[in-house]
Amino acid sequence: MSSSINTNSIPKPIHQKNSLNENDYMPKRFGISYNPPQIVVEYQKLSNNKLYHHKIKLHKFSSNTKISEIIDDMYKRHNIYLNHKKVNKAQIIQLVEKLREKLIQKNENDEKNKNDVKLVYNIKNENLNKLNKEELDQKKKEMDIFYEQNNIKKTDKNFQYDIRKEFNNNEGLADWDDDEEDEEI
Q1: CB 43 within 8 A of CB 28
Q2: What is the span of the domain harbouring residue 95?
Q3: What's this model's pTM, rounded to 2 decimal places?
Q4: pLDDT digits (tens, 9 = 90+) for 54-94
């Protein structure tokens, strides 16, 4: 016995193109998401009195992109949600500027962290046992940044599995490195 589903009885998702009538919705508020950069429109569908969220992804968004280009692209792709009769364009511009400022701030912090990583090379001969807790915590943060920047993940294009290297021991065996059997502790 086979059963079939009547697809005509399944309601279409509200976010499909042209499924929203401009007279059947009212924008309530806006939100932003920094990663990935997007603006979220919370709106009420008047026919069923329910709230929905529509995400407007900002494609190719960078700190160098002109705000006017981003706004024009948003209005072309999401004109029904950004209807000029219901949404103040100045508010949308303000949200995009806020996203851009955050991106610029993130880029500046990334650049600062790159400069801080150079300190890791200078501390490798420093005795960390002599540092107080705050100084030690700062050194650990620097080491973590250095580690994250140099960590190669499986998804990275320069990842190689099972790298083997030979190390020359010019100093001879260390006093703890002997061939005796293990001792029970």
Answers
A1: yes
A2: 16-104
A3: 0.49
A4: 999 887 787 788 888 888 888 888 888 888 888 888 888 99
